[in-house]
C-alpha cells in the first residue's frame, strides 16, 4: 500500500488522544514495544489505517500469521472503539480486546466487530487471532 503515515504531530488514528509520533508511530517504527494487549491492538488498527502491512505481519503470532498480507487501497479506516479488555496488562501473558472499527470502502460503510486474542512471548505482545468478525 502506498499511503504515507501521518505526521508525528497529527492525531493518532487509534483515537487514544496522543499524536501519532508519541503513540502508534513509535511502535510502527519499532522504537518501542506495546506494553499491553490493547496498545498492540490499537497499533494494529493504526497500521491498517496508514497501510503498514509490515507492522501487522511483525506483530502477528508466528503460529497464525499469514505468509503475506495485502491491504485494500480503497478502504479508509475512520474510527476505532474498544468495547472491552480482559487481562492483557503489563504483568499478563494473555489478553483479549473487543473492538468495533468503522471503515469506508468501495461498498460503502463497513463495521468490523472483533474479539481479538493476544499472547505475550519473550516480553512482546503478539496478535493471535480473532473470534467473531462482522
TrEMBL record:
Supply the InterPro entries for this chain.
NTF2-like_dom_sf (IPR032710), YchJ-like (IPR023006), YchJ-like_M (IPR048469)
Sequence intervals crossing the membrane: none
Which organism was this protein described from? Pseudokineococcus basanitobsidens
Q: Which Pfam family name is an example for this entry?
A: YchJ_M-like
What is the protein's given name? Answer: UPF0225 protein WDZ17_14255
- Any idea where the YchJ-like middle NTF2-like domain is? 36-129
| Family to which this protein belongs | Belongs to the UPF0225 family.
Amino acid at each position: 500500500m502506498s499511503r504515507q503515515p501521518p505526521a508525528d504531530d497529527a492525531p493518532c488514528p487509534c483515537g487514544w488522544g496522543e499524536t501519532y509520533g508519541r503513540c502508534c508511530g513509535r511502535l510502527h517504527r519499532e522504537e518501542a514495544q506495546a506494553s499491553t494487549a490493547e496498545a498492540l491492538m490499537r497499533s494494529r488498527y493504526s497500521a491498517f489505517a496508514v497501510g503498514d502491512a509490515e507492522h501487522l505481519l511483525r506483530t502477528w503470532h508466528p503460529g497464525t500469521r499469514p505468509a503475506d498480507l495485502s491491504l485494500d487501497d480503497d478502504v479508509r479506516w475512520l474510527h476505532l472503539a474498544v468495547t472491552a479488555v480482559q487481562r492483557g496488562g503489563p504483568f499478563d501473558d494473555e489478553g483479549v480486546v473487543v473492538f468495533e472499527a468503522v471503515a469506508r470502502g468501495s461498498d460503502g460503510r463497513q463495521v468490523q466487530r472483533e474479539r481479538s486474542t493476544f499472547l505475550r512471548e519473550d516480553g512482546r505482545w503478539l496478535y493471535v487471532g480473532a473470534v467473531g468478525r462482522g
